[in-house]
Amino acid sequence: MNKCFLSVQTIEDPKESYDWRNKLILTCKALVPAIGKGDPTQITIKAFSDRDMSRMQQLKKDMHLFISAGSLRWDYKAKELSVSGGQLVRVDASSFPIVNEVCLTGDCGNDINHSDGRQVKFIESSKGHFVKATQTLVVNTGGKGYDYFQLEAFNEVGAPLDLASMLMDRTRKGTPLSIYGYLSTNQWIDKESGVPKSRTVVRLTKGRTMSAPASRQEIKPQTEVATDKVTTLWGGQTAEATTETETVPDPQTPEETQPQADNVPVAAGPSPNPWGMEEDDGKPF
């Protein structure tokens, strides 16, 4: 499964582009508002069908939209997070909530090394003892294609919903996994080049392993994405963190947030669309 439900704000007018088959498509860059103390996540809306392209032509810069049941993609060569399909609806940011939900099912891409601080990290704070764990989720895109999403779980040690321990102790390379989460982005300035960079992961809110693991060929994509920092988004609102532990500051430095060479960013976690799926009336907005 690959579904996302996102509130976004466009940052450009739609543009013509071409897909890998040299077919004309429309694209439009947008931002997903930050969750908690994170940064906005840049995403590209893509329209492939005639219906979606007709709707995309109605978009303008700085529009507020809700994407319902879109498909999330990560192009590791272009270092681009994108969404296509689903329902695209224009909304009023003053009354419509910030939604950032993703649901993904795939196979885990890594064996977890508990002694590697980039995969497992224990954090002491005045609010308690916390643990953070990461894993890569390999999601089939049809045929022999795969997208690699970087998962992250962060919670108090021994919490009733201990998603970090699930990743640490119950997953390895090839383990089938289904997760819900949200897109979480951190931005920093590279000390050597001075170039702004970002890393996007899917912060888990739910997850479960499934049947026995299967082997999977590994691809090692790049994970750093150059991006500009945005100061105003969704009327200046910021979404509340979804769990109590999200309010605990994660004391990692920008260098520590950089992913491993064999991991890929992204990704976020949904629950069923709370507004339901309305039937398409054929009107753009």
Automatic annotation (TrEMBL):
Origin organism lineage: Bacteria, Pseudomonadati, Pseudomonadota, Gammaproteobacteria, Alteromonadales
Chain spans, region Disordered: 207-285
Alphabetic keyword roster: DNA-binding
Keyword NAD attributed: no
Name of this chain's protein: Uncharacterized protein
GO molecular function terms noted in the UniProt entry: single-stranded DNA binding
Taxonomic source organism: Alteromonas australica
SUPFAM superfamilies xref list: Nucleic acid-binding proteins (SSF50249)
Record's compositionally biased regions (Low complexity): 238-260
UniProt KW RNA-binding keyword: no
Top-level lineage group: Bacteria
